[in-house]
Amino acid sequence: MTKVARIHAEDGASARVADPHIGLDPPVWRSNAQYYAFLSYSHKDEDLADWLHHELERFQVPRALAGKLTANGVIPKRLTPVFRDRHELAAAKDLGEEIEAALAASQYLLVLCSPDAAKSHWTNAEIETFKRTRPDGCVLAAIVAGDPFASDIKGHEGEECFPPALRQKFDRRGRATGKRAEPLAADLRDTGDGRRMGFLKLVAGMLGVGLDELVQRDTMRRQRRLAWLSAASLAGMVITSSLALFALQARDEARDQRREAESLVSFMLGDLKDKLEPIGRLDALDGVGRRVLSYYSKQDAADLSDASLLQRARALSLTAEVAYLRGDLDTAQRLYLQAMSGTAEAVHRSPDDPKRLFDHAQNVFWMGELARLRGRSGPAEAAFREYKRLADLMVSIEPDNLKWRMETQYAAINLGIVLYNQRRFAEAARHFQGALRPMESLAAIDSGNTEYQKELSNLLAWLADTKQSEGQLDQAIAIRERQLAFLHRLAASGTADVELGEKLIPAHTGLAILLATRGQAERGIEQLRLAVAEADRLIPIEPANTAWKVRAAQARLELGKTLLSLGRNEEAAKEIRIGCDLTTGLRARGPNVAKSLTLETACLAMRSRLALASGANAEASVLAERALASARTERSGDPIADRYSVAAAYRLLGDVRQRAGDREAARVAWDAGLSKLPQGVVERPRELVVRTELLKRLGRIEEARVLTEKLDSIGYQSVG
Asked: Confidence class of residue 570 from pLDDT cuts 50, 70 and 90?
């Protein structure tokens, strides 16, 4: 994986996944293509069109490449047929309809670019027609005369070789945007790539392979042909030469097979992963990682090359991250440890390689993150400090590398998260605010990098949670609103990435909680319904993604609690039921999922309150007892917060007993709850509410009054 999300706000962020699956289907339009390419050109460039058409149709794809899966689909054996508009439609009755049909049936559009082509209405119309149906690409330019974008230079307009439609982008609806496009271009002129190299560049673009790889294989094929010709001419050395050639061929074939396998592994962990990752396909991602690991399991790790060692480590990281997203933290930790061992060895072999340091840093981060999620603050801090050391080392080696500079900001934020978990909220806020401006600058420099944008959203989530914990509610609301506006701008830009949707769920939920605590429950309900709608959209995409289901359950239960506080019991019951069903499904996935959740406690508590509101005291009592038992066993990763959860469960149990008329039993429960609360710790506002309510119920009014005044001073109102 190229990058992981390192920031996980309490209400907010979550980790990214990694790799794709080898069974990726080719583009839909390809299955209907009748022509491999459509050749568009000006009549004045007909001689060159003849040459290019002939070369394309006689070109044989190297055997080692044919059938290989690339980002452009499965590589064919031949690049045929190639359609030529003026050559093949001379007898057509309806020229316009025929051309449009041929364009629609072509996989690629090749444009011979020259000043004559740039002025050709016909050529421009063909490009427009093609781009309307496939605005994202599949157009390749072959420069035969003139210069690209010369029309931008005053006095050189006549030298322009790109037709107008080639020079601008088209949106997803097939409309010209006026924004400048940079088509893949080969320069066939002697002063450029030359005909042979330019031709191979066009072919590489269509096949989706590197030019070097294609050139190498083309050269090898020519060399083999010459070798056979030479062997045939040496009659006296037929046997010897044949044997020598056979040995060379066997060696080359073995080398080709290994290169092909390594290339496939690289593709699976690179382009294919990047295509599947944004759409949230955990099954596909897991399949890719396991297939790569199966390949490397047949080889001795000690004998692996540096590149193979790193690819094996990336595959381990990929399968570890899938396990994390499925809630299996034990498996994730085991796999990350193996991956970290591999990247540590790679760094040992080449300690000054920043790319190896980067790969190793990702695994170090995840070990810290898993420790943090389990409430192990010490190991988490140690891992995050090592992560920062590695990031600083990367920057010292390549100071101008934007990616490495961003890593240092992630490291600073992770240390802020450790401080947050240690309840050192003011220090954590300083870390987050200190990282905010540099991250905004780096994200603005590389505005097309969605990872940077998502990480900036995570930082805003953490900063909002920290301000909320400090009692600065209005600041927290403003930051949450800023985060949501930022995420919606990203989504509106056309970025098809499920992680944006995942981040919208806790962002809306977090803002809703803040609004409710400021007495704006109705506005909070609106935000929670938006969170629920986003969760309902995401879950069908990848039903195995427990992270999404956790977000969905949190939003549903929070919505139910808010509705219940307003007396809208019937609506609340519906949301609580759905939230509890999600929680039950998560529980069924095993204890490793349940360890990191407090959802079951929340579910049982909500159901108990519903029963109490409807007068079903016996049912409310049973559910309150179960909520207490759940609170005693579940772990959130914050041991202090878990104690407040237990105390809140005792408070509910006492309320149920009092409603049943057993005042003494109620007092026993409230006393037990108060005894669970820690002393001498910094309390969040919602934790102050638990202490205050218990003191009130026990008749300790003066102590409760002091805390009530503190809550009133920050404008905090309890909900439920």
From this structure: very high
